[in-house]
Design goal:
Chain lengths: ~230, ~400
């Protein structure tokens, strides 16, 4: 048991998807503890269960068996509305395809989640400006996603993930749609986010990005093949 | 950002879809609005016509509607008896007939003739000249003619009209040009006194009336007048305007009511289908976006409100545009339908009523809610993890 209170703790979690051809076991008794300040990278071949694990850690999905605690509370006993509230206030998501709302500007995309969380307008404005400056896009605040490059869109998405000051940011293949150089810039940004105190769990195929993490986990066939607490090389 | 603002941006982002939706709802909504106006238009218009005469009760010999059944026998006695009732302010016997009038080129023209004892209420409206008098001019009884007859035969006050249907040809002196409430477009009509009527139709039974027009005493009310007539003369049949209209609603006008009901149902169905399809396609195109929003913590309620707002904007915007469009369409359709023969020219098929507008708006609110139901269920029940996984693979 860690001395620090875990943000999320999975113990022997499995996730089985019922399929017409028979149930598919996407996760098999995976145990993982993510503590405040962690920078975790999960790698593995396609279909090995990385995204499924990320979705469980992010309270988007619930395990078929095992226990899953988020900040000490069992996710399994939470109602959907409660998990939704936790995702809004305590977890940030970064997606491979960014999923910025195309009809909203960069500013509005970052502000929207704060608005949904009920943050007062003045505070929202200050926080949005702070975050766009943080990701280096203050001058592109009024641009629509279609007017931004892939790297810029992902930086806006990272700003959006940080908007409600979450304890945990989860990123699913955040450099999957980017070239190597832009991927490096996103990696640098993640390093800074983690250095500033935000816990990160990144699922990635990108070895360079995984190498930045303080803990690197490998997955294979729904199991964590190795879960050493690795120091960042 | 409120759901309405969010929905507005969403529509703005896809202008083609928004324009298609708004136009479709406007066109279908216009048809719906028209059908709502048609469903009661004839009744409302007919009520206006009946009320414009100033008589609120019609008395006939049988259950048949006024003018369609046998005449009231002993009309003078019946009129006198009814005039004695304190609930009634006026009783006017009326006769209907058709006569041939000699035209300027010595041919004949069919003219509908109304014989009435008095003109102090609204059997007709004087347009030019003077109303019927009691006297005669050199043996020529007075006659009022409608504008069609006056125009076609170049008649004016002082002109002589000669009937070709009597032998010898009876002559009438035109005292004025009038407008009859129930005259059809292009129909030639004339009004004469009851005495003049017997001269125009010498073979007709003298003491008969096709109809007794009755006005109730102010403050007594139509129902009390009808009850008094039924009590005094159970052999006669008294109809209030409401009763006449009720019978028309279930008989002569039921065709239009049924047509409007069927077309309104079809219009509503197409409005629903259109908006449901547009919203469903839109949600299906944005499944990844919706799943991402849900993963970011947006509640089902918020997603539902966003879609409802989008539906409301499409249906509301289109529905508001449907009102002027519907009014314009109604004018065109009304003018076509009014060309049907033998219809009173003042009768309208499409009549605007606040009730039709309220129903139209009610239908639109319902349509917006129902149309959004399926896409809302689709979006709210979206499996977030599975959708994100599927979207990232595709």
């Amino acid at each position: 048991m860690s001395a620090k209170a875990a943000i999320v703790e999975a113990r022997g979690v499995s996730r089985v998807y019922p399929m017409p051809a028979g149930p598919v076991e996407a996760l098999r008794e995976v145990s993982l503890t993510v503590e405040p300040g962690d920078y975790v990278a999960i790698s593995g071949p396609s279909g090995c269960g990385k995204s499924t694990l990320l979705h469980l850690l992010g309270c988007v999905d619930t395990p078929t068996s095992g226990s899953l605690l988020f900040e000490g509370r069992s996710v399994l006993t939470m109602r959907e509305e409660e998990r939704s509230r936790i995702r809004l206030h305590r977890i940030g998501f970064v997606f491979q395809r960014f999923y910025l709302l195309p009809m909203l500007t960069a500013w509005e995309n970052v502000e929207l989640v704060q608005s949904e969380a009920g943050m007062p307008a003045a505070e929202r404005r200050a926080r949005t400006l702070e975050l766009l400056e943080y990701v280096g896009l203050a001058e592109r605040a009024g641009h629509l996603p279609s007017q931004l490059s892939g790297g810029e869109m992902q930086r806006v998405a990272i700003a959006r993930a940080l908007a409600n000051r979450p304890g945990l940011v989860l990123a699913d293949e955040p450099t999957g749609e980017l070239d190597d150089e832009t991927g490096e810039q996103i990696g640098d940004l993640f390093d800074r986010v983690n250095a500033d105190g935000t816990t990160l769990v990144i699922v990635t195929h990108n070895p360079a990005l995984a190498a930045r993490a303080s803990r690197r986990l490998a997955m294979r066939s729904g199991r964590l093949a190795a879960s050493p607490a690795m120091a960042r090389p | 950002m409120s759901p309405l603002q969010f929905a507005g941006r969403s529509l703005y982002r896809q202008p083609a879809r928004a324009i298609l939706g708004l136009t479709g709802v406007a066109v279908v909504g216009a048809l719906l609005f028209d059908m709502l106006m048609l469903s009661r238009g004839l009744i409302v218009s007919f009520r206006d016509l009946l009320e414009s005469t100033g008589f609120d009760v019609r008395v006939t010999a049988t259950e048949a509607l006024p003018g369609l059944g046998p005449a009231v026998a002993d009309a003078a006695a019946a009129t006198d008896e009814l005039r004695g009732l304190p609930e009634l302010a006026a009783v006017v016997p009326v006769r209907f007939g058709g006569a041939a009038v000699e035209t300027r080129d010595k041919k004949t023209r069919q003219v509908a003739i109304i014989g009435s004892e008095t003109r102090r209420r609204g059997e007709w409206r004087l347009v030019e000249g003077a109303d019927l008098g009691d006297g005669t001019d050199g043996g020529r009884p007075d006659m009022v003619v409608n504008r069609t007859l006056a125009r076609e035969e170049a008649l004016a006050p002082g002109s002589i009209v000669r009937l070709a249907s009597t032998l010898p040809g009876r002559e009438f002196r035109v005292t004025g040009v009038v407008e009859f409430p129930f005259e059809a477009t292009g129909e030639s009509m004339a009004g004469v006194t009851l005495r003049g009527f017997t001269l125009a139709f010498p073979t007709a039974r003298r003491d008969e009336a096709d109809l007794l027009l009755v006005a109730s005493q102010p403050g007594v009310g139509t129902d009390a007048a009808v009850a008094a007539i039924r009590h005094a003369r159970p052999d006669l049949h008294a109809f209030s305007i409401d009763e006449v209209l009720e019978r028309l609603r279930h008989a002569e006008f039921s065709y239009f009511r049924q047509v409007s009901f069927v077309l309104a149902t079809i219009a509503s169905f197409f409005a629903l289908l259109l908006v449901t399809t547009l919203l469903t396609v839109s949600v299906n195109q944005r499944l990844g976006e919706v799943a991402a929003l849900r993963a970011l913590g947006f509640s089902r309620r918020r997603i539902t409100l966003d879609l409802l707002a989008e539906s409301a904007l499409l249906v509301g915007g289109g529905g508001i545009a449907a009102i002027p469009l519907g009014l314009l369409l109604a004018r065109g359709l009304d003018s076509i339908l009014r060309q049907m023969p033998d219809l009173p020219s003042r009768l309208h098929f499409f009549v605007f009523e606040p009730r039709a507008l309220a129903l139209h708006l009610g239908f639109l609110v319902l349509a917006a809610l129902i149309a959004a139901a399926y896409p809302v269920i689709l979006a709210a029940r979206l499996p977030i993890a599975a959708t994100l996984r599927r979207e990232s693979i595709s």
